[in-house]
Specification:
Blueprint (H helix, E strand, L loop, with lengths): L8 H5 L1 H19 L13 H18 L2 H5 L4 H22 L2 H8 L4 H8 L2 H15 L2 H8 L2 H23 L11 H22 L7 H4 L1 H8 L5 H4 L15 H49 L6
Helix pairs in contact: 2-3, 3-5, 5-10, 5-15, 8-10, 8-11, 11-15
Length: 303
């Protein structure tokens, strides 16, 4: 079994990507803790928001800048860990991490506002994300995107934006953006899980390896070139993913589908609990307000 170290430091740790994320994090902290008074209707960020955003950025580096990104071009299960974390875990953290005034500044821009308003309608948001995600995992489409740098960058960026759009109706806290309330959020989560299932089922129950970029040595080498410098690849004699994994191609593929489904169920379970308890607490508050109003309108006679 070969080690990923043979691809070199740059391929394993993406130093330029790390530098760009550090800059983004520095700008975030300066905006929400120092320069926020310069913006209209702004307020200082909270510790909770900064923890959410920082965790999101750390995970973003973990899945796109660490050796996991390289491993995701070698083994399918690592690729699916990337996908699940990138589209199901990180977007909620960023939604919670950015203060309301920053979100309003982004989504209220003249060009963005009507498009964002349309895309975040619950049914459209569900269909857009799950449709594009499932389309990506059609073998022919997958293999083309995985071997073209610009297509890969463009498609994964689009999926990330659509993941934020998909999570927005459930998790945003802007009063003017609340399109779902109460038990509708629970139904939204169940619908989301159902729509993601066919893509996972295609992968889990296939009888043979279906992706050339993990089973065909030439296509695999092309995909690997997206994250390994050409000068490094030219010095290596690679035959295929089996050099780095003890799993067969079919076992690797099935494990990828199972991992995606497990992470999805965990994340959706957490969000389901969050949505349910938010609904329950709001109902309790509503009952207390109604009871207080009733008592105010019908005071008990004093003896």
């Amino acid at each position: 079994m070969f080690s990923l170290d043979l691809f070199g430091f740059r391929a394993n740790w993406s130093p330029f990507y790390l530098a760009s994320l550090i800059i983004i994090l520095a700008i975030y902290y300066l905006l929400v803790f120092k320069y926020y008074p310069r913006f209209k209707d702004s307020e200082r960020g909270t510790l909770k928001q900064s923890l959410f955003f920082t965790t999101g950025i750390i995970l973003l580096y973990g899945v796109k800048g660490s050796p996991l990104d390289l491993l995701g071009h070698i083994t399918f299960y690592a690729h699916m860990i990337q996908m699940a974390t990138l589209y199901l875990v990180i977007p909620p953290l960023l939604i919670f991490g950015l203060p309301n005034w920053i979100w309003r500044g982004i989504i209220n821009k003249p060009i963005i506002k009507p498009l964002f308003s349309l895309m975040t309608k619950p049914l459209i948001a569900l269909v857009l994300f799950n449709g594009i995600f499932s389309f990506y995992h059609i073998p022919l489409i997958f293999d083309v995107i995985k071997t073209d740098m610009w297509l890969h960058a463009g498609y994964t960026t689009l999926l990330f934006v659509l993941a934020i759009v998909m999570w927005w109706p459930l998790l945003n806290v802007l009063p003017e953006q609340q399109s779902l309330s109460g038990l509708k959020k629970v139904g939204y989560i169940f619908a989301d899980g159902i729509l993601l299932t066919p893509a996972c089922a295609l992968i889990i129950f296939a009888d043979t390896p279906i992706y050339a970029t993990f089973s065909d040595p030439n296509a695999w080498a092309q995909a690997l070139a997206l994250c390994v410098p050409a000068s490094t690849l030219s010095m290596l004699n690679l035959s295929g993913p089996e050099m780095f994994s003890s799993l067969s191609l079919l076992e690797d593929q099935r494990l990828g589908g199972v991992v995606m489904k497990i992470i999805q169920e965990i994340v959706y379970g957490v969000v389901l609990a969050y949505a349910f308890f938010n609904w329950y607490n709001s109902e309790q508050e509503k009952e207390k307000e109604e009871l207080a109003l009733y008592r105010q309108q019908h005071p008990q006679p004093t003896e």
